[in-house]
Write a structure and sequence with these properties.
The chain is mainly alpha-helical and about 280 residues long. It folds into two domains: about 35 residues; about 230 residues, Orthogonal Bundle (MetI-like fold), CATH 1.10.3720. The protein is about 75% helix and about 0% strand. The protein has eleven helices and two strands. Helix 3 packs parallel to helix 6 and helix 4 crosses helix 6. The longest helix is centred in the first third of the chain and has 34 residues.
Length: about 280
């Protein structure tokens, strides 16, 4: 077999594998969209559930999801970026640092229900935050941290060392170099990791099941120490706990959650593309 023939065979195999992976996902998205589209309306987005959650809308669950996503961002972004800067720019390359990086990678693969149980013990019971937005946000923030740290560190390390050398040679301090040269060029990768991490947090059910989610709350939370509804848990409830629930409401709820996650992913893609075009290396 010639080199050209091998190349063609490899191209066909890779294309076939990509289609096999993408096609089922695409079919699932199309099916959810087709089944849930009829449930979408102004009332569905702006009214609370009523009549045993078989009628009405998703307003408390949508806002609860947004509150938790915002709380997760506040809890995880500063700490995650700070840890990434330390590991990439300040930490010595020794066995301890390598163990820390390995631990971060392993933490990213821990099942979300483990984070939920940890949040229950640490934030709900030990710190006495109760089942609240604060406890749920901190739990989701811990779950998101490994993703943010890993992606931010990789983005920082991808900045050419020449930028640092030139800045330091001109008299800038190490922090000035990081702040003015390294971080602006690493920002596309950092933002992508942040938004993808928040997208995962927005769609999680197990952590909020133990720390914040309520079965039914028609009123909006008044403080961070209140419980709230959330779309992932609400979808679980109406799919398994409510008899006689119309299928279109179930699929409509799934579609709204899917649209939120896809919107965050799309924002990450657009921001990364725009910033990479502005980058000059």
């Amino acid at each position: 077999m010639t080199r050209q023939q091998s190349q063609k065979v490899a191209t066909v195999l890779v294309t076939a594998v990509a289609i096999i992976v993408i096609l089922p996902i695409f079919l699932v998205l199309v099916y959810i969209f087709a089944q849930g589209w009829s449930a979408l309306s102004w009332e569905f987005f702006t009214q609370p559930p009523r009549n045993g959650m078989t009628e009405g809308g998703l307003l408390p669950a949508i806002l609860g999801t947004l509150f938790l996503t915002l709380g997760t961002a506040v809890a995880s972004i500063p700490l995650g970026i700070g840890a990434a800067i330390y590991l990439a720019e300040y930490a010595p390359n020794n066995r301890l640092t390598r163990l820390i990086r390995l631990a971060i990678v392993n933490l990213a693969g821990i099942p979300s229900i483990v984070y939920g149980l940890f949040g229950l013990g640490a934030f709900v019971l030990f710190l006495n935050f109760g089942t609240s937005i604060l406890a749920g946000s901190l739990t989701l923030g811990l779950m998101t941290l490994p993703v943010i740290i890993s992606t931010a560190e990789e983005a920082i390390l991808s900045v050419p060392s020449e930028f640092r050398i030139v800045s330091l040679s001109l008299g800038a301090t190490r922090w000035q170099t990081i702040r003015n040269q390294v971080l602006p060029h690493a920002l596309p990768g950092i933002l992508t990791g942040i938004i993808l991490g928040l997208s995962r947090a927005a769609g999680e059910t197990a952590p909020i099941l133990f720390t914040v989610a309520a079965f039914y709350l028609p009123e909006l939370p008044k403080s961070i120490f209140d419980q709230t509804m959330a779309l992932p848990y609400h979808l679980y409830v109406i799919s398994t706990q409510v008899p006689g629930m119309p299928l279109q409401i179930q699929y409509g709820t799934a579609l709204v959650l899917l649209l939120i996650v896809l919107t965050l992913t799309l924002v990450a893609t657009v921001v990364r593309t725009i910033m990479r075009r502005r980058r000059q290396w």
